[in-house]
User: What shape does this take?
Amino acid sequence: MSSSFILVAFYSVHGGTQLLAEALARGIESAGMEARLRQIPPVTSNLDEQVKAVPDTGAPFVQLTDLEECAGLALGSPTRFGNMSAAVKYFIDQTLAQWLAGSLINKPASVFTSTGSMHGGQEATLLSMQIPLLHHGMLICGLPYSEAELHSTQSGGTPYGPSHLAVNKTPTLSNEEKALAFAQGKRLAMIAKKLEAN
Assistant: This one.
């Protein structure tokens, strides 16, 4: 069964990761595919607290069926000590059934992140997010150095995936960050289309 959308699943606290997700989505749609934006629900250390079934604002929460049905995945998380956030890890840890079924094998995937400091662990976070996707048999798509902004960025942007350097509580993507996220989304969609054609 062919799928016509790329899932852009992200967790965002201050908005930087969400801005990257939206830029990725624009890139996906520029390549002629639907971008399905979905938030990853937060986790809580309070066992008596229930996470809302529907977010107060923004995109709906992601469902495991979104993963099963997508043609490709862009997964985003803020950096937590050089690693993905607990919310994203918790979401991935729920995908045993999809792993057993091979639901994600040969689907293209990319990852993206946001940090609050220049050396806040962006690349370590991106690499940590790729590991479970490799276990799922996904095809990791990074950013090639043919993207000129990788050579000129003074903010975010890595060959492992788009990133954002959040310098204040009101996030704004730099021109390079926008361009690289857009390019990643476009590349992901183009690869997904080629894979589906075979």
